[in-house]
Specification:
- The protein contains 13 helices and 18 strands.
- The protein is an alpha/beta fold and 416 residues long.
- It has two domains: 212 residues, Carbamate kinase; 116 residues, VC0802-like (2-Layer Sandwich), CATH 3.30.2130.10.
- Helix 2 runs antiparallel to helix 3 and helix 7 crosses helix 8.
- The longest helix is centred in the first third of the chain and has 19 residues.
- It starts with a strand and ends with a strand.
- The protein binds adenosine-5'-diphosphate, aspartic acid and magnesium ion.
- Aspartic acid binds next to loops.
Length: 416
Amino acid sequence: MKIFKFGGASVKDVKGVKNIVKVLEQVGYNDILIVLSAMGKMTNAFEKIADAYFYKKESLTSSVEEVRTYHYQILAALFKDENHEIFSELEKLFVQLTSFMIQNKIRDFNFVYDQIVSLAELISTKIVSHYLNEVGIENTWIDVRDCIKTNDEYREAKVNWKETEKAITTKIKPQNLYITQGFIAKNSKGNTTTLGREGSDYSASIFANSLNADSLTIWKDVKGVLNADPRYFSATQLLQQISYTEAIELAFYGASVIHPKTLQPLQTKEIPLYVKSFVNPENEGTTVTRGVNLLPEIPCFIVKKNQILLSISSLDFSFIVEQNISEIFELLHNFDMKVSLIQNSAISFSVCMDDKFNQFESLYNTLTSKFKIEYYKGVSLYTIRHFNSKAIKEIEYNSKILLKQSTKETIQMVVQ
Ligand code: ADP
Ligand code: ASP
Ligand code: MG
């Protein structure tokens, strides 16, 4: 069996959905399980609904209207028969959303978030599954919550591998075409959970691992994994081959083309990962396997925007010692900061981090009672794997470097 993953960019509009048909016709669709994300930026749109509902904002009605309009426009263009069952199925999902918002009594934002945001994937898979059936590509729609089982950590749920593998192998049979949701799952209480933003790649890799799949193909709006994000760098090159370990490093440092958790489940079973273009499916793209570390062997650039560089020193200029560091880390953890770089000197300790959940102000207020704090907001963290002097100069040119750190293979620079 092969696993395909299509992301939001691939189904952001009518043309995108139709293009999936083209891809499947070109590469074949027997014995395949498709993991699909929400359409376009619909996860962000559903996040707005969750936020407006939870914090009782006036924008709730318009936020719901936004997602309705977006999906119904796509539906109207794909299904000419207004009596097609997809219309009532979609309506059922919207009724589910409204009933949840009326009946819910649980005041836990992360729980509420998962129950609401998960609808985006349920909707996209319903639409695409029906459309494929409509054009003659027969497939079975699967509720992924019957397959991927997790703990109760809403928004960052951890997979229960044993239960998941059992459920997947019972449910999925070879020689069929299945379509299911990325990103979402279910806990033992029967509530919906999510695996973290951009988690659909990971969902696909969970299926690949559990089914001992022949391969996982992630279909993208780029040629494959490039040596830099084309949104920020002009002359990018395709990486034809990458080892699992190199891919893990690239994803870890923030190459957002692959979700970091995707690689390990593939590596343990040596399942090849192909990253290919959904525009030109016949092109080779990138292969991630065991073996050749990086082909071609060129510097790879990764940028994380909108970081915070925090510099902490003691109020009395004494040394920052183990005890302070452990206290600082506990606070970073408590305030959900995602740390991407650390550096310490005798009297100060610096961290570059991502304030994913907007909690910096509270962290700052807590830290200032004990330490002297300096910080820069909105800085960028550049990482270059396999750097050379030319690559470093490219980043240093015209920018102010606030911090630099290097190991044998990797250099990181915090840039203002
Ligand atoms: P999807 O909706 O399919 O999940 P994403 O937008 O999450 O797609 O990922 C694709 C995007 O990842 C590309 O359009 C590109 O801008 C970005 N990207 C970041 N780093 C890289 C890289 N090293 N190689 C290719 N694309 C990259
Ligand atoms: N739809 C989810 C998100 O936008 C998961 C994914 O696309 O991978 O984060
Ligand atoms: Mg993505």
